[in-house]
Design brief:
Layout lengths: L3 H27 L6 H23 L12 H31 L3 H23 L14 E4 L2 E3 L1 H23 L1 H11 L1 H6 L4 H26 L6 H16 L4 H21 L5 H15 L10
Antiparallel strand pairs: 1-2
């Protein structure tokens, strides 16, 4: 019996984990569900694509790093794209969301994020068209891992990236001053301000970190599949499902929820058919809200 579906679900969960962490950080610190988060995934992927092409024209084609389909050029482009996506998030916050937060208009902020999402996606289609694009044309050959499972080096690299990112975010939140301030603001922003925490700075860090993780998730998805304007929007429901299943505000929960969603989707495709995949996130989301609204790692009220 092959367990290929399980490995596919774990790899998909690794990609979801990066984006779901940004969702849970944004929601817990900014107090609203940002439906433009999916577009940060798309923008990060396209910015990396443009920066990699620019580096290629300036520095030459560059060689891939065996056995992967990409090289140092894409890694550098991904880092710059993550930073630029963070800046994009800060600009959007200054233009739209900060003013709505000041008025206490959380519901209006959610609706505004829908508009921002559509505008960002339309702008991508204007700039790049809706035609799929690719980071590399290199052929990847899957290697056997045992139990009937096979994976390409790129897939294993993405899984390793998700693992390192998860450990890094957990260490940041638990062992740095900024991380502890983020957790304090998530608990009670008014009390955090009273004890001297710069809440506005924490909000900026949250936007930067969440958008940067989304951009890295977009690059990872682009490496394994393709880059399209709608790629982030298609991940939005699984991202929110992962964050809620794991428990809003919990980074370990976001990662656990992402792997639950990824594996559940892969199992559904394997045993029920690909046409049911889109329903998995919705079913998990409803089930968790009915049975345990706080999620796996969230605290019960």
């Amino acid at each position: 019996m092959t367990l290929q579906w399980l490995l596919d679900g774990v790899i998909a969960g690794g990609i979801l984990a990066l984006g779901a962490t940004g969702v849970t950080l944004t929601y817990s610190n900014l107090r609203f569900a940002n439906f433009a988060h999916g577009e940060f995934i798309s923008w990060g992927a396209y910015l990396a694509l443009s920066l990699a092409a620019l580096a290629g024209s300036m520095l030459g084609a560059g060689a891939v790093v065996e056995p992967f389909s990409f090289g140092a050029r894409l890694l550098l482009a991904a880092g710059l794209a993550a930073a630029l996506t963070g800046v994009l998030a800060l600009v959007l916050d200054a233009l739209v969301f900060r003013r709505l937060r000041a008025r206490g208009a959380a519901v209006t902020a959610v609706m505004a994020s829908f508009g921002v999402s559509m505008a960002l996606r339309a702008l991508l289609e204007v700039l790049y068209t809706s035609r799929p694009q690719y980071y590399s044309n290199e052929l990847q050959i899957a290697v056997p891992l045992g139990a009937g499972m096979r994976a390409t080096p790129d897939q294993l690299a993405v899984l390793g990236l998700a693992t390192v990112a998860g450990i890094g975010i957990a260490l940041l939140l638990s062992h740095t001053v900024t991380g502890r301030q983020m957790r304090a603001v998530a608990e009670n922003p008014l009390l955090a301000a009273v004890v001297g925490i710069d809440v506005a700075r924490v909000v900026r860090v949250t936007w930067l970190l969440g958008a940067a993780l989304a951009a890295v998730s977009g690059v990872a998805l682009g490496v394994l599949v393709q880059v399209r304007p709608a790629m982030g929007a298609e991940l939005l429901l699984p991202l929110f499902a992962a964050a809620i299943v794991g428990g809003i505000g919990s980074v370990p929960g976001a990662f656990a929820g992402a792997f639950v969603v990824g594996i559940a989707e892969a199992a559904t495709v394997r045993y029920a058919g690909a046409e049911w995949r889109a329903a998995v996130s919705f079913v998990l989301l409803v089930a968790v809200l009915l049975v345990r609204p706080a999620g796996l790692f969230g605290r019960q009220p």
